[in-house]
Predict the structure.
Amino acid sequence: MTGKERVVAAANRRKTDKPPTSLRCTSEAAEALMEYLGVPTYIDALDKMEVDLRWIGVPYIGPKERGTPTLGGEGTDIWGNGMKAAKNQYNTYFEIVHHPLAKCESVDEIMSYDWPSLDWFDYSGVKEEIKANKKTDDRAIMFFAGRAFETPWYMRGQEQFFMDMMENPEIINAICSKVREFYYQRALRVIDAADGEIDVIGSGADIGGQQSLMLSPDMWREQIKPHSAGLVRPFRDMGLCTFHHSCGSVDVVIDDYVDIGIQILDPIQVSAAGMRPEGLFTRFGDRISFHGALDVVELLPKSTAQEVYDETMRMISVLGGNYGYFVSPTHQIQGDTPPENVAAIYQAARDYGVR
């Protein structure tokens, strides 16, 4: 099977020759991995490990003063969020320090804000990035449309956003509607530019904490779910596979995820309440596919390569019972993870397929 065939089959829980694979890294971890594998580019590293699912972006050509990637540098992003660097010995992260909608008091103020333009992106570069990812195999291509929960609260400020959910739900709806529509329309342009070569559309909403949802399930269903659905259902209806990222304890809404058309659930944060793989597979393994489950906090940075290999094999056997498991870390590989441990993940996936 090609990578694309493998990914599409697993999204629909059909038999594959081996489990499909996916990988995200911080820039520091990517550089270490490239050096370990002896390759010049990150795509070469993915090719060497035979990673199936490839994430592509769309080049930014808009105003420089709004051109910093969200949480990807110091400066201001397309939404007007301001970010500053926060460093540790392994990685540099970026925290939001300015929320442009924090002081808005009405829907009219929200609607009159200087929202980003779809024309700030160069869609002509999409095909070239896809081609670069397909030089050794017909890989599955995913475009991550966006986030209809985090982006709104980044703009409003998390505390104010949650207060608004109780006191000013019309403001929440206005912000989420504007964000959702932008991400939806941008994804349509990317799909059109890709000329049939987008296989998966991604979306996200980190609504889970370590022990439970960050908000009540009913409040999420009433105020957030419709916007999240707007970045899932239309693309599923187009025949594309759908991927959704939601960290933390989210088991109480997985039925809802299935309802809105999510096929692939990421990242399966195994340390969070209700997210043990054995229980998830028993409850949901016939209705949704799983992506992740290889812990980036304890397992990957603190184990030996053999232990990572063994745990990857075990996770494939647990979550892949219906062929609906994507071998992947639970989030981006961090700079404290030895590159040999990353390589062990993908060696296990290859070996599992020939057992």
